[in-house]
Amino acid sequence: MGSEMPKYFMILDEEAWNLVSCWGQVFSGLSSRRCIAACVINGTGGDIQIKSTKLLEGGSPCYSIPTKEFDSDHGVLHAGGIIIFFGWSQQPSLLQPGNVFMHIETNAFTADLAHKKSRDVYAEAFAGFELGFLEKSYDDHGWWAKYWLLIRKTESSDISSSL
To answer: Domain of life, per the record (predicted)?
Structure first.
């Protein structure tokens, strides 16, 4: 799937919701596991280098589902590209709460995301970029979270690069 498709953003948002919804249906009851879907939109007009993605807490690797604008050999998300990061927790027990906490680091921003509303959730853009949450959706019971982040170049960086 690529950015030239009609209804590109709508289709990808539906995919992210389907991912969270299906996960909740499959892993429910006694085998419940929390999850995070974090979607990143490259609105910079240039490339973003994905340096690392990992779960600081959780029971899975941090999986990525990119659009065709992602170069997996070099970890580069080209302009207009979107990548969905997905991870899940261990099964909660008396000794393990089953939290999931995701860390994303790029050359444009860094973000820490949790499966529930938390003071530890943050995203920070580096110099020359601005980052905003387009969406922060949480399950009322703290079982999943879905985020949409948009990274863009700042106006001042566009002016200084043209001088």
So the answer is: Eukaryota
Indicate the Cα dihedral angle 121, 126, 128, 132, nearest 10°.
Answer: -10
In the block, tokens 């043209």 appear at 162
pTM tops 0.85, yes or no? yes
Residue 115 inside a domain? The answer is yes
In a domain, 91, yes or no: yes
Domains identified in the chain, total number: 1
**Can you tell me the distance from the alpha carbon of 159 to that of 64, in angstroms, rounded to the nearest whole number?**
33
Burial class (CB in 10 A: 0-12, 13-18, 19+), 119: exposed
The CATH code of the domain that includes 73 is 2.60.270.50
- pLDDT tens, residue by residue, 16-68: 988 888 887 777 666 788 999 999 999 999 999 999 999 999 889 999 999 99
